Amino acid sequence: QVQLVESGGGLVQAGGSLRLSCAASGRTFSNYAMGWFRQAPGKEREFVATISGSGGVTRYADSVKGRFTISRDNAKNTVYLQMNSVKPEESAVYYCAAKFANSGSYIYTGRGVYDYWGQGTQVTVSS
Fold first, then answer.
1. Bridge-partner residues for 79, per DSSP?
2. How does residue 1 score in pLDDT terms, banded at 50, 70 and 90?
3. Residue from 18, 5, 1 nearest 76 by CA
4. 61 contacts 8 by C-beta, under 8 angstroms
5. What secondary structure does DSSP assign to the chain, as a single string?
6. Are 2 and 30 in contact (CB under 8 A)?
7. Buried/exposed code over 39-71 (b: 16+ C-beta within 10 A; e: otherwise)
8. Which residue, among 117, 124, 106, has the nearest Cα to 18 in the 3D structure?
9. Are strands 121-126 and 10-13 parallel, antiparallel or unpaired?
10. In this structure, how many other beta carbons lie within 10 angstroms of the beta carbon of residue 110?
């Protein structure tokens, strides 16, 4: 079992920045690719970013490229999402997720393949 706890959400003005954190416990963190997803009311949960177990490979949704950065600190069992230039339409509950990977370079963008999910943290962007 892997437990994931997100933090760092809150209210931010459009154009501002926010950093989300996701602390993991339970298994060897570096064996897991990590992902960030978000879900707005009435919408499906959508992919935001993913990072490989080693931290060397990342991928982003087109909508956040150049503004969001995913990173991880395997010594602290934590993955981060730095959000810059946020937009009102990005208000959502943000979830982190973990997927066991046989290689430290694997990444995953599909929400259906992830093994574990956190409870989510609310991000509200005011206009």
1. 22, 72
2. confident
3. 5
4. no
5. --EEEEE--EEEETT--EEEEEEEESS-GGGEEEEEEEE-TTS--EEEEEE-TTS--EEE-TTTTTTEEEEEETTTTEEEEEE-S--GGG-EEEEEEEEE-SSTT-----GGG-SEE---EEEEEE-
6. no
7. eeeeeebebbbbbbbebeeeebbeebeeebbbe
8. 124
9. parallel
10. 10
CA–chain centroid gap for 92, Å, is 12
Structure tokens at 120: 């989510």
| CA torsion through residues 5, 114, 110, 57, sign | positive
Q: Would you tell me how many other CB atoms lie within 10 Å of the CB of residue 10?
A: 11
3-state secondary structure 94-120: EEEEEEECCCCCCCCCCHHHCCEECCC
pLDDT of residue 15: 98
- Structure confidence by residue, pLDDT tens digits, 95-109: 999 999 988 899 999
| Phi-psi region at 26: left, alpha or beta (left = phi > 0; alpha = psi -120 to 50) | left
